[in-house]
Each structure stands twice: as structure tokens, then as C-alpha cells.
Design goal:
Dihydrodipicolinate Reductase, domain 2; Rossmann fold; 6-stranded parallel beta sheet; globular
């Protein structure tokens, strides 16, 4: 072992008690109402900005996907991406896209304020939907979208895809096996100095919670279970910003958040996120090799090394095995944060249910909305949504 890292072979041998197969392979069940076993999923992607530069390389390489059309309200962006990724059709408006070449799955990578509206239009047109986070602007809107999708026997999924990582599976399995004893608390953080290319991050419906905190909320609820209640404080540290597409703007959405979730049974977790955090690894996170998530129990603690959307390893210490702890580096396999749309496309073809669940994304959305409400009122906010837990058994 060098620099605290171990090989995949050493990892499997050392931590076999957790069940290596269960850690490294997704736990999947049969998906219902799917009918694409004989062909690839035809995908139409809307929103050809920065995120599409991550999604399109992954989608166009998937054996389960054929990207047939692109759409953007700035037609030149759609045309440029269509030429770059050899997509035959591109459109300037979703109505033209839906009236154009047929497709099965809408992949929505537009500004977050547009997600709910565009997702409903796609569902109404009979399309399955993968939405970048969040799937809607409010929990009420998201709940209505999911109910509408279910009524039409369509599938709706929402980012992030953090539950797909081998590191998440490793940590979930360790918790399931009682490696930390009785759980008590957790902390997660993610922040940088803020995006400079678009105003939507700072406008109503934007903010550090749906852009950054969403990852940590998804990870902690996935590991510890649905939140029962939320207490939070939200602030604006930088009231004005200068961004590429609009120049100087007034910041309306929160750019700094401290959030506490009550998971029941006495377990509390804390998330901090913001657009005013100096981070030497920057927005891209390249090179981050420090813990960003910590969990504590009565007999041990566990840390996620790297960001949960791009994790590197897990450090585990407990009084039963090695009190000083040991770092494990699960085989990353095929995991990358932008794989969600490709994963659900595979699900539509194979009929195997992915770990990513719409109900989980909806719960995360309710947590975000509750945090804002708590920040305004100073009160503890009870939650009503839930999702299938544990995510990894």
C-alpha cells in the first residue's frame, strides 16, 4: 500500500466482510412499464450549454442510446453541439423538437428554473424524462410532475446520480453491517466562489442549495434515510455579481446555507454549501483528495474522500477492526456524475430498475424547500415525502 491507497485486489481481500459484489455492482430490480428491449433509446436533449458538454460525450458512447435531436433557445449552441457530436437534428424550441424527429427520452439540461415547465411539456407529449437537478422549482410542482408521469405510465428521473458510485455503495454497506455501531451524526460540505457564466444561479429559483447542496442532501439521505424534519439558516453574502450573460446583477437566491436534517432515531446530519467558499480545487474539483463527508457512530467513523459527485475513496475507523482507520479505494467502475441519463436509458432497454429513484430526487427537493422556509421563519419544518430505503441493501 502506497500513500494510503490500495489496489482493487487488496480492497476486495481486505474488506470482503462487506460483500464486494454488493459494493461494486448496482442493486437492481425489475422496472415496470418499459418496452424498448428490441432497440436503442432515442434521446432528445434540450439545453446545449455547459452541462451538455458533459452529458453528450457520455450519451453518444452508450450502446443503449441514439441521440437523435438537440434543442436550445440559442440556435447557434444547438447547431454547434449537433455538429460536434454528429447529431442529425437540432431545434430552437421544445415545440419544434417535439414535432420533429421522434424520440423516447427527453434529457433536460436547461437552466434550473425551466426544469419543471419543460419536464411537464415533455411528459404531456408522451416522453420519458431525465432532468438535471432539481426536477422542479417546488416540491408541490415536483410531486404533481411525478404523479402525472405515473398516470401516463411514463418514467421521470432527476439528478444527481451520487447513489451510483462504488464509494456510496461501500459506505451504505458498512452502515447496513453496523460497522459504525449506533449512528449519531454526519456532516457534508460543498462550495466554491460561484459560477460566472450565467445569472440563473443567483436568480429566484437558483441558489447554492439546488446547485451544490443537492449533492450532499442526496448522499446523506441515501445513507441515513429520509429526513423527518429540517432546520436551516440561509443568507446572501455577496449581494451583487457580475456574470457573462447579463453583466452586473442583484443576487436574489441564497448563496450561503447551513442545514440540519433530522433522520429519526436521534440521528442528525449537517450540510453546508455556498458560492463564497475559497476552494483550491475550484468549481471542477480536480485533485480533491480530502474528506467532504463524515459520519459518526458509537463505535466508529467514516469519511468520503473527494466530492460525493466525484469520490475517490473511503476512510473507515472503528473499535472492532482498526481504531486508527484505513483508507479503501473501491474500483470506480464506470461511475461519473454525468452518467444518469445513460443509466436510465439502459434501464428502459433492459427493464432493470436503477438505484436512482424519482422519489429520492423529490425528497431532496422537499428538503431544499424546507430549508428555505426554515431560514425565513426560524422554525423547524416537518417533511412528508419519503423514498425506498435502504438504497443499497
Amino acid at each position: 500500500m502506497a500513500n494510503g491507497k490500495i489496489s482493487r485486489k487488496q480492497f476486495l481481500k481486505t474488506f470482503g466482510a462487506l460483500g464486494a459484489g454488493a459494493i461494486l455492482a448496482p442493486i437492481m430490480g425489475k422496472a415496470e412499464g418499459l418496452h424498448f428491449a428490441d432497440r436503442k433509446i432515442k434521446v432528445g436533449l434540450i439545453g446545449c450549454g455547459s452541462v451538455s458538454n458533459m452529458y453528450l460525450p457520455h450519451l453518444t458512447k452508450s450502446p443503449y442510446v441514439e441521440v437523435v435531436s438537440l434543442c436550445d433557445i440559442i440556435p447557434e449552441r444547438a447547431q454547434k453541439q449537433a455538429e460536434k457530436y454528429k447529431v442529425k437534428n437540432h431545434y430552437p424550441h421544445i415545440d419544434q423538437m417535439l414535432a420533429g424527429v421522434p424520440f423516447d427520452l427527453l434529457v433536460n439540461t436547461t437552466d434550473m428554473q425551466e426544469h419543471g415547465r419543460l419536464n411537464r411539456i415533455a411528459l404531456n407529449a408522451g416522453k420519458h424524462v431525465w432532468s438535471e437537478k432539481p426536477m422542479a422549482n417546488t416540491y408541490k410542482e415536483g410531486r404533481a410532475l411525478l404523479d402525472f408521469a405515473n398516470s401516463k405510465k411514463l418514467r421521470l428521473w432527476g439528478a444527481p446520480a451520487v447513489v451510483n458510485s462504488p464509494q456510496f455503495a461501500f459506505m451504505a454497506k458498512a452502515l447496513n453491517e453496523g460497522k459504525l455501531g449506533k449512528m449519531a451524526a454526519a456532516h457534508a460540505h460543498y462550495g466554491h466562489t460561484g459560477p460566472g457564466w450565467s445569472a440563473f444561479f443567483y436568480e429566484k429559483g437558483g441558489g447554492s442549495l439546488p446547485d451544490l447542496g443537492v449533492y450532499n442532501i442526496a448522499t446523506l439521505t441515501g445513507l441515513l434515510g429520509p429526513a423527518k424534519a429540517v432546520t436551516a439558516m440561509t443568507t446572501i453574502v455577496t449581494p451583487e455579481r457580475t456574470v457573462d450573460n447579463k453583466g452586473k446583477i442583484k443576487v436574489v437566491a441564497e448563496d450561503n446555507t447551513m442545514l440540519i436534517m433530522d433522520h429519526g432515531n436521534g440521528v442528525l446530519s449537517h450540510v453546508q454549501c455556498g458560492f463564497n467558499y475559497f476552494d483550491p480545487f475550484g468549481h471542477e474539483g480536480d485533485g480533491q483528495d480530502r474528506p467532504t463527508i463524515m459520519l459518526w457512530g458509537s463505535h466508529g467513523n467514516m469519511a468520503l474522500i473527494g466530492y460525493d459527485w466525484a469520490p475517490f475513496g473511503v476512510h473507515l475507523a472503528n473499535s472492532w477492526d482498526k481504531p486508527e482507520g484505513e483508507r479503501f479505494v473501491p474500483d470506480p467502475g464506470t461511475y461519473v456524475w454525468e452518467q444518469g441519463a445513460s443509466v436510465v436509458s439502459e434501464s428502459l432497454v433492459t427493464g432493470q430498475e436503477p438505484l436512482i429513484a424519482a422519489e429520492h430526487a423529490l425528497h431532496v427537493l422537499e428538503v431544499i424547500e424546507a430549508a428555505r422556509k426554515s431560514g425565513k421563519t426560524g422554525k423547524r419544518v416537518m417533511l412528508k415525502s419519503t423514498f425506498k430505503y435502504p438504497v443499497v441493501k
